[in-house]
Amino acid sequence: MTRIATTPHGKLSMAQALNRALRDAMAEDESVLVFGEDVGPLGGVFRITDGLTETFGANRCFDTPLAESGIMGMAVGLAMNGMRPVVEMQFDAFAYPAFEQVVSHVAKMRNRTRGRVTLPMVIRIPYAGGIGGVEHHCDSSESYYAHTPGLHVVAPATVADAYTLLREAIASPDPVVFLEPKKLYWSKEEVEIPAGGPGIGRAVVRREGADATLIAYGPSVPVAMAAAEIAAQEGRGLQVVDVRSIVPFDDETVCRAVRSTGRAVVVAEASGFASVSSEIVARVTERCFHSLAAPIRRVAGFDIPYPPPKLEHYHLPGVDRVLDAVDDLQWEDA
Amino acid sequence: MENVRPLAHNRCMTPDHDHLLPSARPVVLIDSGGRPVESAGYALPPDDHLVKAYEALVVGRRVNDQAYALVRQGRLAVYPSSHGQEACQVAAAHVLQDGDWLFPTYRDTVAAVARGVDPVEALVLLKGDWHSGYDPHAHHVAPQATPLATQLPHAVGVAHAARLRGEPTVVMALCGDGATSEGDFHEALNFAAVFRTPVVFFVQNNEYAISVPLARQSVAPSLAHKGIGYGVPGERVDGNDVAALLAVLGGAVARARAGEGPQLVEAHTYRMHAHTNADDATRYRQDEEVQAWVGRDPLTRLDAFLGGRGLLTDQMRESCAGKAERIAAAMRAGLAKDVRPDPSELFAHVYSAPTPQLLEQAALVADELSREEGH
Predict the structure, then answer these.
(1) Given 3.30.300.30, 3.30.2040.10, 3.40.50.920, 3.40.50.1100, which CATH number is that of A204-329?
(2) Which positions 68-87 of A are in contact with B (Cβ < 8 Å)?
(3) pLDDT digit string (tens) for B187-221?
(4) So which residues of A are the catalytic ones?
């Protein structure tokens, strides 16, 4: 338990918080098993599982053959027979071989069997870009999972949420796709463990502001926060909502926030077409139409394959693009 | 040319690995005429096991043919029959103990029934009231798998969980010849071998994947030969000889239970009917081919063997037929009931608790229903 401790300043990185959540869950419940590619002695390519094999033994945290469908399918069987598997897909795009298992079995088992067979399992996926990764390492794949009934889909944006939401995901009786924003792994916060905060299914307002609402999740939350900071200096109050839980989606909190300002911009890295960001715009528009002073804008990834590292900053939603979208919210009518 | 490493191929063929290879020919213990056959390493199962298997074969055949008829009467949407493969179905269930698990495919209804699942519950899937109609935990029978080979990694997981807890569970995982081409077949065998999990992979090679013959699936010497690639012992067995199946599958289960790791068994059998009632088998196979397999029927073969040994009397035959008839009658009665499925259940099992969005959608359907009733 010594390899992952709080830093001398009491600050914890998101990677450390995730490791601590796995540790605490494994210590509390011996049916929690962690497995995947390189998660054993290496501790995972992002070191999220650092020291778990050493602490809990190779039966509790172990490497598997290099085959994601096999990993996911084995997790289904383990969960059918009393275990709580937490599998790591090494990178977003490397989870695709497991897609059939996720869509046809992980998501459907409870429903197929009228609730008789449940799959309490967590699929951890380091996801999204902004780290200069080469191709197939930076996909924002949340829409594929969010479109599949039967899965919960969660993306933390803060260190505290990384701990709280991962503990909730492991304790959940339902399968949870847990999307870890790679570019936030090394972000640090002063955090007391257990970190507390609302669970899966709740969005939170990260920053109050009266003029417009920015809706974001995962890696886009810090972008929205930075945009709000600059807007405040320019005299415009931007409220920031962190969605946290893509499925179930917290219509109540998001819509209350948008009604309070009458203007909104959704920020997400994933390509915008047929995406979580388009779903958010549709839902909020359906529910808040009469409170809106302008159409809801989106700042999303372009509809292109994820770019090579030297071009990714053109693709990723940045503070300037968010502020430009806010400027377009028909202020002249106000 | 010193210190040249032997080719992997040569390493495989060292005597140390010969035990991973299947027999030169499928194991047979009773030939198609009902006569006993010597087969090295395998003994005839005890008489009472064969008599029990006979009854299950009679019931299995009746279940297959009743279900087929129920499709024609419009009571089932479709039925993938295992007519002709009942020996495989029965043996796969009979070699298991109570704590073991069976992972059947859509064609393995008879195997599920032989393990104790109520045929009416098994046919809920094909009747269309819901998906899986039985409780998988009640008899340790997983939901019948419709996608190919995806259930095999699940079988590995169930076995691995049991092994981690020190339970003596063995998992029997069924698939067909076509499924051996799927990636999940490969991944499941490899995972099972690496983790040494007690799974028996049982391939019913019935020569066709819908219309596509085995020659288009694989040019391996046999499907059982695929085991050596994973370090898994493979064996071949006559899939219409229930005695050989009980011996070979029973041995595989015993070795898996004893900690020797996964086992691969290929049964050579034949799908006597079309893929389902919706399929037209005359488009891809000749009637002579089908007729040739009639003479190898598993039921008549066992009947001749047991009868010849005085182990099966006409009274016993009648008793078995009577039991099969009662089960068929229960199937007809159970499937004749037009239970209107409750649409609100569509939202009940998606998650442990419905999301707010699903509650809204359930309310919408409830409102539509109340308006329908108002008319």
Answers:
(1) 3.40.50.920
(2) 69-70, 72-83, 85
(3) 999 999 999 999 999 999 999 999 999 999 999 99
(4) 137
